[in-house]
Amino acid sequence: MPKWIFVAFVLSTLVLGFAGCQLSRAGYESAPYTVLSRDRGFEVRQYPVLQMAETASGGDDFMRLFRYISKGNQSETKIAMTTPVFMSSTEGAKRTMSFVLPEKMAELPEPKNPQVVLRRLEAGEFAVLRFRGKQQGPEGVASQALRAWMAERKLASSGDPLFAYFDPPWTPGPMRRNEVMIRLAIAR
Prior knowledge:
Elements: H1 3-26, E1 29-30, E2 34-39, E3 42-47, E4 50-56, H2 61-69, E5 82-83, E6 85-88, E7 96-100, E8 117-121, E9 124-131, H3 141-152, E10 162-165, E11 178-183
Parallel strand pairs: 1-5
Antiparallel strand pairs: 2-3, 3-9, 4-7, 4-8, 6-7, 6-10, 9-11, 10-11
């Protein structure tokens, strides 16, 4: 096989793979926010109240939440998948995974599984840094960079980092959209 055909094949595969990853995330409603400021890849965002289905992390946490939105609720209502999937950064039994529920849902059906709870993420301002690659914890590079930027700007935090994951697990690391968010203690 001529070298140019191989190079064209590899480039085509990369372009189609990148487009496929972008399209897989584009088909979902995403949690709304307003960007208040940007600085070197860091953002301060205002989020409204978000309705969420949440479960303790570990084991089949994703599937518990997926079953809830796939008619595994008291009214057997199918609920649209949204982005991002939120993961708390606390370790151990307190670590959670949450699905954001669609904004247009007036009434949320009760979960059948008692391990799934409905809760609200209260409105507020968050410092945010987008990163690619694998999931990180509170001591990861992205969290440390966000905390350092917040310290430079004298922005006080109100809680632990929250991680937002936007892509399916088969998305290659360099193409993933991940974010670390920290609630700000001040209001503008």
